[in-house]
Amino acid sequence: MTQPPGNTEAGTADELVVLLDADLSPIGTADKTAVHGADTPLHLAFSCYVFDGRGRLLATRRALAKATWPGVWTNSCCGHPGPGEDAERAVRRRVREELGIALRDVERVLPDFRYRARSAEGVVENEFCPVYAAVTDDTPDPDPAEIAEWRWVPWASFVALAESAPWAISPWAAEQVPLLDASGVSAGSRV
């Protein structure tokens, strides 16, 4: 499963995740489809919260076929930078792939976020996951294999949901939203 850093076989570079040690240094790569299980190794990821010009959050509901947290409402997009891929470039790439939109004003707002969570199916997420906020002027055209539903919601409503019913959204969003709100990422004010 583990490959040395920088080893990207032809045709699989977009499917590799970067494995990390306890000090968050890259130690290799693994195929994304094989890395998430009951004993998921620490790896690099990102979360992105996309706002529109009115300060509303693009909330998404994960596709029912997703291996982790299927059908759960969450932030706009999550993903994994490929080996050697710039993080902001990875965010823009993945948002374009999943949501069919371009971003502007991309900002890394929680640079040190890390979490571990276990789904009802027993799949563990174990990620060092910097969080980004961005703005779009586009109308989403999501990939149905990734996104079941989407809607623009007032930021204050999503914050209230995370506080009153954290079980109703993804575990990473439940942890990230209060931190984002406390840092001033409200209604897109920092993006």
UniProtKB/TrEMBL annotation:
Domain of life the protein comes from: Bacteria
Enzyme class, spelled out: isomerase
Annotated organism of origin: Halostreptopolyspora alba
NCBIfam families in the record: IPP_isom_1, PRK03759.1
Cofactor note: Binds 1 Mn(2+) ion per subunit. Binds 1 Mg(2+) ion per subunit. The magnesium ion binds only when substrate is bound.
UniProt: Mn(2+) binding residues: H36, H43, H80, E125, E127
GO MF annotation terms: isopentenyl-diphosphate delta-isomerase activity; metal ion binding
Name of the molecule in the record: Isopentenyl-diphosphate Delta-isomerase
Domain Nudix hydrolase: 41-175
